[in-house]
Amino acid sequence: MTQDTLNFIFIGLSFALYIGIAFRSKAGSTKEYYTAGGGVSPFANGMATAADWMSAATFISMAGTVAISGYDASRFLMGWTGGFVLLTVLMVPYLRKFNKATVPDFVGDRYYSKLARGVAVGCAIFICMTYIMGQMRGVGVVFSQLFGISITSGVITGGAIVFFYAGLGGMKGITYTQVAQYSVMAFAYTIPAIFIAMALTGNVIPQLGLIGNYTAGDEIVPFLQKMNNINTELGFSEYTSGKMSTLNMFCITAALMCGTAGLPHVIVRFFTVKDVRAVRKSACWTLAFIAVIYLTAPTIGAFSRVNLIEKLHDTAYTEAPAWFQEFEETGQMAWVDKNDDGKIQYYGPGMSEAGTFSVFQGKNPDYPTYEAPENQRIGKHGERLLANKADDSNPNELWFGNDIMVMANPHMAGLPMWVIALLMAGCIAAALSTAAGLLLVLSTSISHDLMKKILKPDLTDKEEVNYARFASFVALAVAVYFGINPPSAFIAKTVAFAFGLAASSFFPTLLMGIFSSRMNKQGAISGMIAGILFTFSYITYFQFLDGTPDQYLFGITPEGIGFVGMLVNFAVAFAVNAFTPRPPEHIIEMVENIHIPSSSTEKEKQDFEI
Amino acid sequence: MQNDNARAHRKSCLRLTLALLAVWFFISYGCSILLRDWLDVNFPSVGNAPFGFWMAQQGSIIGFILILVTYAFLMNRLDNKHGYTKEK
């Protein structure tokens, strides 16, 4: 059986499962559509949230980022898990008690203003949209590699599948689909790691292997020692030290953490459980499930880096392992023979963030068209040639995309074909589950908060669900368009964008809404607008216009600017609040009330007020 | 009476939250970023990994889970103490 057939079988089976689940749990009412009826068990909700949370970028690129930047990549590991602590202790129990289905709903009611609701809807749409575009792009890339179709058709296929089960099943459908998707992802991620850990360190548990010994070489050395040695020998910075400034590391980690705590699609996931107690329990499960993947990522990164260097560095191209050519074919790896010795040389600092010290000029490889004459496409050793000119200012000859570490891992370790098929299925599951979760938030923000609460208050329940389905169709169409024509070359860049915006808009507004009963609408609205404008313009200027790194504010990269935006939001909100009238009495009472978990004397409201 | 109870509950809840956030700050920003260099040198290594590096890549994540478990456990106890247990 060939690899392609196996891939088809694994992916086909997983799709059949997802769609079957979506069909069985078709949503009828708005309550089921928005919050799955509110009775999902904490365990299942934890799994679903974990799947929702783990995007294609996390699943495919994170281990690669760790492999390339070692300690510096801890900002992602900590940022994306530590945010859950903030989310759980500061946000969701109170928002759940408030009993509304969406985040803009809370903002609108708490700040007693349609304008606040409108701004929140705008932020939610923007955050979800930037995020979902990256996912659709990811789906398209995987599909195109898998089925040999163009990225365009890949994105469209992915979009159709997402629409089918998110639009049809609503929250109820995606919750149970995501449970299945999480299982696929977790197996797909950890199984290759276990095999490789056994091969390199003789330890079955990858996490212990990383801090254990390297046993595959001639002598037994501590694994991280080995890692540091090969890094410094080749001219990279020490793996365990990193080279990012402490301030930058701090700001980026903080922006990612606060962004996580302000992401609307993660917050609403906790509205699907029964009560505040279940929310806390569910958060524990969520983080535990996420940790399964996040504790494995650093091990995959380190192991595959050793594997990659040991197998490729100073190896003649003609003797390089077969997978190298497969990845050249798909444009994930490239070799430029600068010194003309027919051997692959990999030297640091390699691909840096600024894009300098690259193998070739420009950031991404560029290939001649298929119609080009053969001597422009194929080199004398049989390698795939690039259209980019070689950058001779450094001796490095090997280029690879971040994504390669996870995808090439089973190949590098010589694992059985079904593991590779499983990995493919896991990767698609990661992209689809996140896209579906985001799509749902987007469509509910439009149908519930924009249509029902602002534009057309007399909508019936049924009309509202139909509006939600229609909105998800439109949103998806836009996402597909941007998935085909991405505004930024890097998926990760757009995702960083979403986090910065969430950190600078929702996080402070929600936090003040919950913990400061004196915060009024003028303060919150001006804070939200100031925070998001600041962050948006900073990121746009440096990522998409012609900003250069030496113009950074205190040297903070666009990735970390969300943290500063958040401080701006707080400062503006409190300043404006001091000069404007205090909120009405019933709002203050309402804020007091969300701090009471549930009462034995007063009967708890069972239903959502939708 | 009900009001005093709610206020006492809110106060203990806030104290617990702040204590847990202090731990959260210490293990992530403290151990893994601000004090890392010092910890790498002066603390016993975990397996073969320097302490600060290990905290950044594995320790803090394990710590986060423990924080959430502690939070769920203590908050439930606090709710019970103040009579906010849901009727069966």
Automatic annotation (TrEMBL), chain A:
Keywords: Cell membrane, Membrane, Transmembrane, Transmembrane helix, Transport
Entries under InterPro entries matching the protein: Na/Glc_symporter_sf, Na/solute_symporter, Na/solute_symporter_CS, Na/solute_symporter_VC_2705, Sodium:Solute_Symporter
Membership in a protein family: Belongs to the sodium:solute symporter (SSF) (TC 2.A.21) family.
UniProt main location, coarse: membrane
Membrane topology: Multi-pass membrane protein
Keyword Thylakoid belongs to the record: no
Domain of life: Bacteria
An example Gene Ontology molecular-function term: transmembrane transporter activity
Transmembrane segments: 6-23, 77-95, 115-134, 146-167, 179-200, 247-271, 283-303, 417-446, 467-484, 490-511, 523-541, 561-580
Record localization: Membrane
Name recorded for this polypeptide: Cation acetate symporter
GO CC terms: plasma membrane
Biological process according to GO: carboxylic acid transport
From TrEMBL, chain B:
PROSITE patterns on file: PROKAR_LIPOPROTEIN
Domain Sodium symporter small subunit: 7-84
Transmembrane segments: 12-35, 55-74
UniProt entry keywords in alphabetical sequence: Membrane, Transmembrane, Transmembrane helix
Name of the molecule in the record: DUF4212 domain-containing protein
Species whose genome carries this gene: Coraliomargarita sinensis
